[in-house]
Amino acid sequence: MTKPKALLLGRLDHAKSSWKALTELADLVRPEAQTREEFLDECKSGRLDGVVAICDRAPQSLTVTGKFDEELIQALPMSVKFICHNVAGYDNIDIEACTARDILVSNCPKVVDAATADTAVFLILAALRGFNNGIMAIRNGTWTGHVPPLPLGHDPDG
User: Fold this and answer.
1) For residues 7 and 55, is the Cβ–Cβ distance under 8 A?
2) Boundaries of each D-isomer specific 2-hydroxyacid dehydrogenase catalytic domain copy (predicted)?
3) 113-129 and 131-140 helices cross at what angle (nearest 10)?
4) Most CB atoms within 10 A, among 3, 5, 121, 137?
């Protein structure tokens, strides 16, 4: 019995052993395409026939596929049933086009919520305290003493 294919789009920086473990369940393939047009042609050529699942490593994959819009969804092999999108949202995938093709789409919500919140708090404090002025003074070699150059930041306590 022929194994289904799983297509990896983009780089795989982590979980390489997990990806390799999938070889027992599926033939693992990568596109040869380097551009969206080449990827569309590759889909239409039959080379990717039998691909059941796509592991989309956005944003790296966008350089090859571009957005998963209706044109791209229609070009995918009819065998595709799953798109595993490794980002928090669906900004790059036309869900209606996937639904029309009975393609299920997953994403990774909440994965970066805490890191995003931390960054937001850092940026708020950095803006309030004027951290960038000090950073730029150090980089430009204009920091001349104990006090950073004007304008000084504000104290959150008032």
Assistant:
1) yes
2) 63-120
3) 80
4) 5
